[in-house]
């Protein structure tokens, strides 16, 4: 029996014993005749009896039910028992057992629901897992999922097969046990950089770069270099947007049957098709070597001429197809020149202390980006060693079907024999330790150095241009010019600035997108894009790009022009936050825009509320174009760009148009110099004069 | 005295044909079989035009072309490159390095004579 029950019973027994002892004492006292002793004994016996009784009562009515309740609760907390609590009747616990019973009921109901939810979620996860497994199994592409430490989290059978890596491929093992390291690291670096950019430059993240920011194609190889792979790397993001890993999908392109078949066809064609003309040539040559009549000689000479012509044409065709095959064998992908150049800049700055500045309008290049990156780094290092220069500009100039990658420095041109020497060195980190020459050949290109004006030299490497991505065609027209704009209002404070040579100025070329073309009727800024131009070089790496939340909806008619919707700017800062940022970006630079009066009016409207002043000198690329080419009628940005041989990129994005305007303006500077316009003051005067003429013409019509 | 043409190629057959062709056109012809020989020949007596193969041992055609342009006394020498690759880019490189013209192998004899004549005029 439990102590809790035993003790009260013992106490009751003691009380009875005390009662008996005191009864005996009473009897002794009566016998002895001591009255006081008798009374004491009686009182003692009564108290003892009362305590004993009270205790027995409490034990039955309170202590026992409480112990039972505790026992029940302990049981029910561990297992689910489907019955009401068993507590003896007649206790003094009042509503306690009922209340506890209710709580237990609620608890068990909650337990049931949780269990159901867990079961359902497990079922769903299992379903998804088996579906994913089925998809992965079914894929002919290899798939490997890694965390950012390049530990493998998941892979499929195709990956094992393609990489021929039964031992090295395993969960939690390093990816670089099965794949070449550098291409993966570079691609990941470019992607992470791009997604950081996208986070920083908010406008970009909402535009066409969304896809680019998460996925990138590249070429890599199995670690034994036996298999060449065309791969795609996508970032895996947490809900917060932070990258937590990446998915790598790849296909074996080294064994592309198609390519082999085409090569076979070419060889067959040479072997079979050339047999006939060669046979008749040989016969004719042998005949001509012997004694012949004049008429016979002429006949055989005709045959020689005709067959040589046939062979020549066939050869030209075969040679051209071979060229395509040979260069097509190395898989290439599109890369944004700025991404490539930034990687070059970072690597050379970190490892070699060489300062590389990306310049010019960025373009898309079709190339094996990893090899190209290594080749460019190798060449710049070599030039730096040879010339002791540590500052280089790097840019990509689009012309016809080619993009010319140019590395520029101060100094004389290099002899081609010197460059030839660099081309022969094998490059570590390329697939198969290729040389720069092989990489140049792989791109069906040539490399040479060429003198530029002002004692500068460039190393030039032409590459094929990418067709994509093309921005959709959008309407292109010159926005109406605001009624009044006074360029002289921004006359530079000092003569020194006024007389500064245009070419040496620090410029910021910018463009805006707006809710409409009527600032006086409440239209507002929704985007600013700008790029710095110093010494006639467009500093591609120094850009400003922001979306702005206007205080009104963006009408669909203007969304059609710039592609920005009200949704896209909903969580963006308003103009009075962005404009001071823009002001600090431009500092005291000269501002340049295409139809500057339009953009300046919007800037000034916003500036008052933002508490900043855009009192920088302003030049208008449109008015200067009108001055230089007065006979032309179409002065849309695209038409002007085309006339000056400037590539139009990302038309109707603020940053794209700013870049295009910058490229136009750099060309205009050359043309202005040809007309004797050399200083800022002269250029501002021209802008004012052209503005005045336009206004007068507008009033007449 | 007719204008002089220096033909530079490491292939004997081509050299023979071009020599015959230029002589027939009335020019004074000299021959060189590689880049170094070519520069030595130019050093001896300045030709009016050089027909210069690109792919040669001991200093290729680009190299020779640059060397010609690097010497101010040879500025008047016309250089026509002969190449087997036939890429636009190669042509552009040649012109960038100072060549005046560019002919792709295999060429027609008529074309060669026309180009040479265009640069230095018919033989006098």
Q: Spans of chain B with pLDDT under 50 lasting ≥5 residues?
A: none
- Report the strand count of chain A: 17
Could you give me the name of the CATH homologous superfamily of chain B?
Response regulator
- Overall pLDDT score of chain A: 81
Q: Which blocks of ≥5 consecutive residues of chain A have pLDDT under 50?
A: 203-211, 468-472
CATH fold naming of the largest domain in chain A: Nucleotidyltransferase, domain 5
> How do the strands line up in the largest sheet of chain A?
2-1-5-4-3
Annotation field: number of helices of chain A: 23
Rg of chain A from C-alpha positions? 44 Å
User: Percentage of helical residues of chain B?
Assistant: 40-55%
Distance between the termini of chain B: 7 Å
The total of beta strands of chain B comes to 5
Estimate the helix proportion of chain A, in percent. 40-55%
């Amino acid at each position: 029996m439990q102590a809790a029950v035993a003790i009260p019973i013992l106490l009751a027994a003691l009380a009875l014993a005390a009662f008996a002892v005191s009864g005996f004492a009473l009897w002794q006292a009566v016998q002895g005749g001591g009255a006081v002793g008798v009374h004491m004994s009686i009182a003692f016996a009564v108290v003892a009896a009362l305590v004993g009784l009270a205790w027995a009562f409490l034990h039955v009515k309170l202590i026992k039910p409480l112990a039972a309740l505790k026992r029940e609760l302990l049981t029910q907390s561990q297992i689910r028992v489907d019955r009401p609590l068993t507590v003896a009747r007649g206790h003094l616990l009042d509503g306690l057992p009922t209340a506890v019973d209710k709580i237990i009921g609620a608890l068990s109901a909650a337990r049931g629901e949780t269990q159901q939810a867990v079961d359902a979620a497990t079922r769903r996860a299992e379903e998804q897992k088996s579906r994913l497994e089925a998809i992965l199994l079914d894929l002919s592409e290899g798939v490997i999922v890694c965390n950012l430490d390049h530990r493998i989290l998941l892979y499929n059978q195709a990956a094992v097969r393609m990489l021929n890596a039964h031992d090295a491929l395993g969960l939690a093992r390093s990816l670089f046990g099965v794949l070449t390291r550098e291409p993966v690291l570079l691609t990941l670096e470019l992607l992470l950089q791009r997604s950081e950019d996208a986070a920083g430059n908010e406008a970009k993240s909402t535009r066409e770069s969304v896809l680019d920011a998460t996925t990138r194609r590249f070429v890599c190889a199995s670690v034994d270099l036996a298999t060449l792979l065309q791969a795609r790397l996508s970032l895996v993001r947490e809900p917060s947007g932070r990258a937590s890993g990446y998915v790598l999908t790849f296909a074996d392109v080294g064994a592309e049957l198609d390519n082999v078949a085409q090569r076979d066809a070419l060889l067959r064609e040479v072997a079979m098709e050339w047999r006939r003309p060669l046979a008749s040539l040989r016969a004719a040559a042998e005949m001509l070597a012997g004694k012949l009549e004049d008429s016979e000689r002429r006949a055989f000479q005709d045959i020689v001429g005709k067959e040589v012509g046939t062979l020549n044409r066939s050869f030209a065709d075969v040679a051209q197809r071979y060229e395509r095959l040979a260069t097509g064998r190395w898989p290439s992908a599109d890369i944004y020149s700025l991404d490539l150049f930034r990687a070059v800049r970072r690597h050379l700055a970190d490892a070699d202390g060489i300062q590389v500045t990306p310049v010019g309008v960025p373009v898309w290049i079709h190339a094996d980006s990893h090899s190209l990156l290594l080749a460019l780094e190798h060449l710049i290092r070599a030039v730096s060693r040879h010339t002791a220069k540590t500052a280089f500009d790097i840019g990509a100039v689009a012309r016809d079907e080619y993009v010319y990658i140019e590395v520029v420095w101060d100094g004389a041109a290099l002899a081609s024999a010197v460059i030839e020497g660099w081309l022969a060195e094998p490059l570590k980190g390329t697939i198969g330790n290729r040389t720069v020459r092989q990489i140049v050949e792989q791109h069906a290109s040539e490399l040479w150095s060429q003198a530029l004006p002002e004692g500068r030299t460039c190393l030039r490497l032409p590459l094929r241009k990418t067709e994509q991505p093309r921005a959709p065609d959008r309407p292109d027209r010159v926005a109406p010019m605001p009624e009044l704009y006074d360029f002289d209002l921004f006359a530079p404070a000092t003569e020194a600035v006024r007389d500064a040579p245009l070419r040496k100025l620090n410029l910021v070329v910018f463009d805006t997108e707006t809710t409409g073309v009527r600032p006086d009727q409440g239209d507002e800024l929704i985007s600013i894009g700008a790029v710095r131009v110093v010494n006639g070089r467009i500093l591609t790496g120094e850009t400003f790009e922001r979306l702005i939340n206007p205080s009104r909806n963006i009408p669909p008619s203007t969304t059609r022009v710039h592609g920005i919707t009200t949704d896209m700017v909903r969580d963006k800062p308003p103009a009075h936050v962005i404009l001071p940022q823009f002001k600090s970006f431009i500092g005291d630079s000269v501002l340049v825009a295409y139809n500057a009066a339009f953009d300046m009016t919007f800037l000034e409207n916003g500036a008052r509320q933002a508490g900043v002043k855009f009192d920088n000198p302003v030049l208008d690329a449109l008015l200067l174009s009108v001055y230089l080419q007065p006979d032309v009628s179409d002065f849309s940005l695209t038409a002007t760009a085309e006339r000056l041989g400037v590539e139009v990129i990302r038309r109707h994005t603020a940053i794209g148009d700013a870049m295009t305007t910058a490229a136009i303006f750099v060309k205009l500077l050359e043309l202005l110099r040809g007309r004797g316009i050399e200083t800022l003051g002269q250029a501002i005067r021209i802008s004012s004069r052209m503005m005045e003429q336009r206004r007068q013409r507008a009033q007449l019509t | 005295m007719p204008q002089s043409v220096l033909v530079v190629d490491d292939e004997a057959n081509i050299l023979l044909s071009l020599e015959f062709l230029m002589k027939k056109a009335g020019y004074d012809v000299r021959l060189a079989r590689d880049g170094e020989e070519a520069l030595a020949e130019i050093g001896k007596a300045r030709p009016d035009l050089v027909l210069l193969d690109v792919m040669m041992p001991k200093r290729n055609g680009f190299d020779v072309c640059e060397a010609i342009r690097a010497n101010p006394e040879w500025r008047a020498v016309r250089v026509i490159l002969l190449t087997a690759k036939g890429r636009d880019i190669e042509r552009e490189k040649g012109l960038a390095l100072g060549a005046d013209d560019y002919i792709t192998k295999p060429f027609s004899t008529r074309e060669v004579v026309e180009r040479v004549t265009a640069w230095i005029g018919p033989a006098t």
